[in-house]
Amino acid sequence: MPMAEPNVVAARSLLVLGGARSGKSAYAQSLAESAAPQRLYLATAQAGDAEMAARIARHRADRGAGWTTLEEPLNLAEALSAETQPGRAVLVDCLTLWISNLMFAGRDVEAEIARLGQVIFALEGPAIIVSNEVGLGLVPETRLGRDFRDAQGWANREVARACDAVVLVAAGLPTLIKPAAPPALSLG
Fold this sequence. Notes:
Layout lengths: L12 E6 L5 H12 L2 E6 L6 H14 L3 E5 L4 H8 L4 E6 L1 H10 L4 H13 L5 E6 L10 H20 L2 E6 L2 E6 L10
Parallel strand pairs: 1-5, 1-6, 2-3, 2-4, 4-5
Antiparallel strand pairs: 6-7
Helix pairs in contact: 3-5, 4-6, 5-6
């Protein structure tokens, strides 16, 4: 069954947020497929174990024909800048794995996030970026978990600021959250 469309907004760059298994990747994929005949899937996942390798293979099979895949676990800003072009939709899936990869590689996560934001402002073609919203749950028990949650929150904020539109997907239902009219506080 096709997913419901939120209010239609023309956007060159779109951030799709959601929780695990919320339907965010399927929603982003359907948007890219309806937007352009040429599509690039910019994957940040790495097959570190058999379970992750199986997930990657399943996602690749689910995409089917009409997609080119580029795996880039670390240099996302550079790859996104190089690969976007008019007439081709680029789908980045996902920022969450990219943040993990950066942390485990010992990279300067804040600098990489800032660079990604700058790249998004200057994109030459359309891009959809998928990310998990991880800040709605419990505070992680470990320092590494808290550092990851914080970095993910910073990345989501920076990318949301840079993108033309942001959609939150919950239970398979997309809700447009940017652009949105700011609420006005009534003093009466």
